[in-house]
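Sharing a chain and its predicted structure for anyone who wants a worked example. Both blocks are below, sequence first, tokens second.
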Amino acid sequence: MGPMYRELAKAAFAYPIIDNHAHPFLKEKQRNSIRYEVFISEAQNDALDDAIYTLPCFRAAAQLSKLFGLKGNDATWEGVKKTRLELDYAELCKLCMEPTGIQCILFDDGLGGIAEMAEDLNWHDKYTGSPSKRIVRLEVEGQNILQDILIANDNSPLSVDILCDTFLQEFTTYMNATAEDDHVVGYKSVACYRTGLDINPAPCGTDELHQCLAAASVQLKEKGSIRFQHKALNDHLVKIVLGIAGKCKKPIQFHTGLGDNDITLTTSSPAHMQPIIKAFPETTFVLLHSSYPYTRDAGYLTSVYKNVYLDFGEIFPFISAEGQRNVIHEVLELAPTNKILWSTDAAWWPERFYLATVQAREAIYEVLAGYVSKQELTEDQAVSIVKMAFFDNANRIYKLGLQPNTSILSP
């Protein structure tokens, strides 16, 4: 039986997509450098062994088996893993990306391992209709800047007050430069991972900053690298970028909710962000990853603050099909439909982009068709919601200036 609502189906399954948050593909020579189960789970180490027993994995195996033409005993997770490595890499990328209808990707290139193993951002343009753009991950840039300063002055270490002034000046200068860079369309914070989303809007004391930078300096000497996990410093850097983002009118994305065991679940709800959202009314906040399992908290914030938007990404393919539909229902309970965005949050493999879009298109059609059938929406309204969520809202807030390429897919 064909779709009950033809125009809604046409939009849901064929309207072009702006992927407002993703990470680059692995280079061909690195295509098997990361454990494949990362594809369907945020678990790490031994906990990742259990991911193959989840509904998301069973579904991913079935959908990828169909894509790869696997049948019978070969249509398994192990069969998928074996077949993908036998395919020519360029053909694999084309096979996965052509059915997505993704027209433009906004890349966060601050994920660990990208510099060493992943393709450059605009390498991906061959699989999309519009040039890729960059999202700047502020904590990683801060770490790199501080590390460079410390290494450059290793033979004659700076006093902590001079180090603080030098670092903050260079960090601010760099972020101001990105504000003028047309390739950069937004910022990203992983405060959720580092010190929690309860970002203090009050000014940070100089003594606190000095202590944090001294601790980071020791970390470099002992471990050979820096990872910001000092709350006063993290909060201070976030506030610097929030101010810059507000002035240049580029959104700032925040990881919220769904993540690995590096986050503290109780401080990963965007509800903790209410004070900082109030403190920066001119800055556009994008709450990433559906804020799962705190989707309703995120929807509430989008409904009462003009400057808050909600991305319903990453749940594809990380949670079950029923769970995905439930999340979209929760998003639509309260969030204005002109303030919802979509992303894959895909990383490393083109298969992630494929599954994320296939599953998202199915879920949004099923949810909106349900509302239409109950006469809670007209079909025209449902079509409008699809177009806003997949393309129009991201095009507007990131100032991409794109026209939807409606011929990118055939319904």
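Comments welcome. DSSP finds 16 helices and eight strands in the chain.
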